[in-house]
Write a structure and sequence with these properties.
Largest sheet: none
Strand content: under 5%
Oligomer: single chain
Structural class: mainly alpha
Helix content: over 70%
Radius of gyration: 21 Å
Shape: globular
Distance between the termini: 27 Å
Number of domains: 1
Length: about 325
């Protein structure tokens, strides 16, 4: 029976309360956004106050679910007292609160960077990404190729019905797993890598703006509307929000949802699944298999549904590997 480790607050007791990398990096990115796009600063500060409680509350709820599951297994294995001691420690409780708060802050910052793309870099590179995809695949579009392979009505309906669910289920499972982890190094280092992934990805959106193949080449996907109804509903919703952002830049105010930004390169759908796969393969016997399947499904599904180009997924996977390696190997990023 493997013992449950007590919660290691820090290696050096004198470092108690020091800021973690994910805290510093989030605040730095928010400051850079406000400097690069000062018009957004007052609104971004206001929305921070409104969005933070819901995201932080969601994280705490996930952590509680994970605690209940871990405690059930710990009672069955006979090592519940050690796990309870970790959960009752001041270090675990304080870190959990910090993780919850900064989950909301990095997501808020990510959302605003993504929304600000038309102001920071208005040019779109969809045609170039489409051409690069074709060059990689010997003149044939991988989006069209995969649509041909999965062209049966049943397959398209399955992908349409499950793509978003698989993505959000994986987000929830990762939140439950790492939010309830009794090991400080594991949960903090994961948070460092995850924050690095989303915020670097957001600035890559700005560096190479693109809407995605379903928006740039609608003639390919619109005929499939009866089979991709759910996907195209979400795509219309996000494009309506994108149009509201453009209207705002022209001085016409319309309601904007900061979580409904539109960007394709890199695919952070694929990036997150890849990061989750790398972490879960390292920590569990079942996690590598499950999240490997999730990553492959999202990679293929993102092209079938028209959210992403092939190069978006490749760039997302490489970004995930880089963030995982950085968090595990660079002392300034490790917990």
């Amino acid at each position: 029976m493997a013992p449950v480790p007590t919660y290691d607050w820090t290696v050096n007791a004198a470092q108690k309360g020091r800021p973690y990398f994910f805290e510093i990096f989030t605040l730095l990115n928010f400051a850079v956004l406000c400097f690069a796009f000062p018009r957004v600063a007052p609104t971004a500060v206001y929305t921070m106050v409104t969005i933070l409680p819901s995201i932080a509350g969601g994280f705490l709820l996930q952590a509680l679910v994970g605690m209940a599951v871990r405690l059930a297994f710990a009672y069955w294995r006979g090592n519940a007292p050690e796990l309870i001691a970790s959960y009752r420690s001041g270090g675990w409780i304080v870190d959990t609160i910090r993780l919850a708060i900064f989950s909301g802050l990095w997501l808020h910052t990510y959302g605003w960077i993504k929304l600000a793309i038309p102001a920071l870099h208005p040019r779109l590179f969809d045609q170039q990404l489409w051409n690069l995809d074709r060059a990689i695949c010997f003149g044939y579009s991988p989006n069209v190729f995969l649509l041909t392979i999965f062209s049966s009505p049943l397959m398209l309906r399955v992908i349409d019905a499950t793509y978003a669910d698989v993505f959000f289920i994986s987000l929830t499972l990762i939140g439950i797993f790492f939010g309830s982890s009794p090991e400080r190094g594991t949960r903090i280092t994961f948070m460092n890598s995850n924050t690095l992934l989303w915020l670097l990805g957001a600035w890559l959106y700005v560096a190479l703006p693109a809407l995605g193949p379903a928006y740039r080449f609608p003639e390919i996907w619109l005929p499939l509307a009866p089979l991709l109804g759910r996907t195209q509903y979400f795509q219309r919703m996000l494009m309506s929000n994108y149009d509201a952002v453009l209207s705002s830049l022209r001085g016409m105010q319309r309601p904007i949802n900061i979580l409904f930004g539109v960007a394709a390169f890199p695919s952070l759908h694929v990036a997150f699944q890849t990061l989750a796969f790398l972490w879960m393969r390292r920590l569990t016997q079942w996690g590598g298999t499950l999240f490997g399947i999730f990553a492959l499904f999202i990679f293929i599904g993102s092209m079938v549904t028209g959210w992403h180009y092939l190069v978006d997924g490749i760039a997302g996977a490489l970004l995930a590997w880089g963030c995982y390696a950085a968090a595990c190997r660079i002392p300034a990023i490790r917990a």
